[in-house]
Specification:
Layout: E1 7-9, E2 17-19, E3 23-26, E4 31-35, E5 52-55, E6 66-67, E7 72-74, H1 76-80, E8 91-95, E9 104-107, E10 111-113, E11 117-122, H2 128-134, H3 138-144, H4 156-160, E12 163-166, H5 169-214, E13 222-224, E14 232-234, E15 238-241, E16 246-250, E17 259-267, H6 269-272, E18 288-290, H7 294-297, E19 302-303, E20 308-311, E21 313-314, E22 323-325, E23 332-334, E24 338-343, H8 350-355, H9 359-366, E25 375-376, H10 379-383, E26 386-389, H11 392-435
Parallel strand pairs: 5-10, 6-9, 17-23
Antiparallel strand pairs: 1-2, 3-12, 4-11, 5-7, 8-9, 8-11, 13-14, 15-26, 16-24, 17-18, 19-23, 20-22, 20-24, 21-25
Length: 454
Amino acid sequence: MVRYEKYKDSGIAWIGEIPKHWRIGRIKRLGRVLTGTTPSTSIEKYFDCEDINWYTPTDFSDENIYLNNSNRHLSQTVLDEKIVQLYPPKCVLLIGIGGTLGRIGYAVDRCYSNQQINAIVFNNGVIPLYYAYSLQPIKAYIWSNANTATMPILNQSATKNLFVAIPPTTEQEQIAKYLDWKCREIDRIVEVRERQIKLLGELRTSVISRAVTHGLNPNAPLKDSGIDWIGQIPKHWKTIKLKYIFTFGKGLNITKEDLVESGMPVISYGQIHSKENHGTGVKESLKRFVNGDYLKTNRQSLVNNNDFIFADTSEDLEGVGNCVFVDNNEMLFAGYHTITLKVKNMQHNKYLAYLFLSDLWRTQIRSRVTGVKVFSITKTILNFNTVLLPPIAEQQQIAEYLDKKTAEIDSTINKFKVQIDKLKEYRQALITEVVTGKIDVRGIEIPTPKTTNR
């Protein structure tokens, strides 16, 4: 990348050196800073239409600074009654408090915001989009210098006094166009990778579902299973209720406050619902710990190799049936909000672990659970669920096949995720380098975008 000919110290830590002909200035010299408002949510007429965007922190993203459409809108009434202040188009919104503090948004059209957001309305002769990009690095600086004992805040006064690098207007415009172009390119690659990850996830689900319900031999004679959720199955397979394979129990009657730094490993419902849980084995990252004294009083909550730990609640239907398969002999407790399925006869249950991942099998639980916001899974519900049982040798064959196939798919997914992370890191680094003048983009010819608002 090309650098400018001469540099000078900006005197601002997060900006560093800047091109010699650039200036440093405070936001208040470039425009007005306004703070948003939340109208009374009990007055329906304020929220009863799609008139004007009303932005809150949930509308912001680290990946895209453009704000085109808010999750919630306000009516013209709030403006007529002078309850909120309307921001003009092309203003820069900055979250001033909370876990997303420092996130930046560029509002394409006129809008409002809530009180967690400061709006910077720039003067004429300033390119707002440049400053939307220019303020991107401020988030990392704010958090790196925050007092860990308190939540940092960027109120209206602090926002006015933020320092930014100020290039000539023509360079501001060129930098904004350049970063739009480069970010679009990066985002397109990220979108392709994300679609590929989604398709690979669907392939993984399909491979598992096919293998655990029809086996590996496409020419195997079939029979009617007599079960609504499955239809035909290989002729030599059996169906059986879970109650004939497992005994049912419950995990420790504890809360998060009972967890300790080290001791006896335990897995509770939170870890079962974690994205880290793939359902076919115990991952180290899922383990938490409780005091070893529970061995004296609660051994019935221990699980063994080939047992299962089911979550007894889920916040959505998709999570109903989530469980952990215990694939080793390490002593392990089932924790709070869990149901244990302990195998009656020593057998290899990895096949069942894959069966329990399939949506077809989970329809049995989902059709019986109760709840609206939280769905409850009981021992009784699990007790009468039916499983498909191939012969033991075939179960092991299916499990080994799925171990290999899912490992191949997961490896590709992980490679794509690493690529996405690196692209996002590059995107942020590029923005920082360009808006602080470490890279000179003045002479770069920028293709005309197909769309102006990303």
